[in-house]
């Protein structure tokens, strides 16, 4: 009899508990219900999409973020809800790029957008069938170890390059610093694209009569010591498009302001942090161009194997007004001030 009574009490408690849970769910706010409905609607849209694009972005960085945004906008402008875009960030880890790419391959995405050189290299190693578009990649031949390169990679790879014309950068240095002699060229030895930029611009600068000396650092730990040496031995410092430099502009700024040595940079982001002037592209526009290429591929209008690497649609002379004023660098009228 006692066992029956205990069992009855337990059953009653279970029923009451279920009832309480049901009542709790039914008394949820309308906002929660709306959010749930919105999420379900978004998921249904993704499930109904005809195409899926996987975006592997190397790191959260102003230029790379803008390129991804431009890419997404271009694809959506052209194809709307026909495309689902999945963005994953590798947090500056090349091994994580490989993991992300492998997940895209396993999920059989229709196209991979690789934002940054290590992301492109991981994508190239991960698949030779899924179309791959790179962006914010400076040198495709170097990144992909191409022995012969005529502007078209071929196979399943194409994309856009973020390098600004190095001959025009050299012309700007000559325009701003005609009387200086020694150019210290600063870059991270781990950035293979930075090395190729340095080699090319040094040829132009030396042809103009400058003496170029390379100053390389391996990572942020030895950057300060290298910059200090470069600033001591140079009249002007040049640094190309370099992600490691871009992440440590504060160190360069403090040293170069103290020694009164101006820095000419290969990108707007670096110039905003520590430079006086740059010839720069708009990363959003570069990503948008890449998105247009993606839409052409998915719509069957272009064959990726014959698509040449595209450059940014335009370049602009810009300057950092604070740094120029502090270092007494005179800027021509056709330069545009960088907005901070």
Oligomer: single chain
The CATH superfamily of the largest domain is identified as Response regulator
- Uncertain segments: 1-45
Radius of gyration: 26 Å
InterPro entries: ABC_transpt-TYRBP-like (IPR007487), Peripla_BP_I (IPR028082)
Keywords: Signal
Protein name: ABC transporter substrate-binding protein
Question: Can you give me a brief rundown of this structure?
Answer:
It comes from Brotonthovivens ammoniilytica. With 340 residues, the protein is α/β, with parallel strands linked by helices. The protein has helices at residues 2-26, 30-48, 62-79, 94-106, 117-126, 140-143, 166-176, 192-207, 223-233, 243-246, 249-259, 268-274, 283-298, 321-327; strands spanning 51-57, 83-89, 111-115, 132-137, 157-161, 182-188, 211-217, 236-239, 263-265, 277-280, 310-311, 316-319, 336-337.
Q: Would you kindly provide a written description of the structure presented here, covering whatever features stand out?
A:
The strands form two sheets. A seven-stranded mixed sheet has the order 7-6-8-9-10-12-13, sandwiched between helices. Strands 2-1-3-4-5-11 form a six-stranded parallel sheet, sandwiched between helices. The model is unreliable at 1-45 (pLDDT under 50). It has 14 helices and 13 strands. The longest helix has 25 residues, at 2-26. The chain is an alpha/beta fold and 340 residues long. The chain has helices at residues 2-26, 30-48, 62-79, 94-106, 117-126, 140-143, 166-176, 192-207, 223-233, 243-246, 249-259, 268-274, 283-298, 321-327, and strands at residues 51-57, 83-89, 111-115, 132-137, 157-161, 182-188, 211-217, 236-239, 263-265, 277-280, 310-311, 316-319, 336-337. It has two domains: 48-162 and 282-308, 3-Layer(aba) Sandwich (Rossmann fold), CATH 3.40.50.2300; 166-280 and 316-337, Response regulator (Rossmann fold, 3-Layer(aba) Sandwich). The protein is elongated, with a radius of gyration of 26 Å. Keywords: Signal. This is ABC transporter substrate-binding protein. Residues 24-46 are annotated as: Disordered. Pfam families: ABC_sub_bind. It comes from Brotonthovivens ammoniilytica.
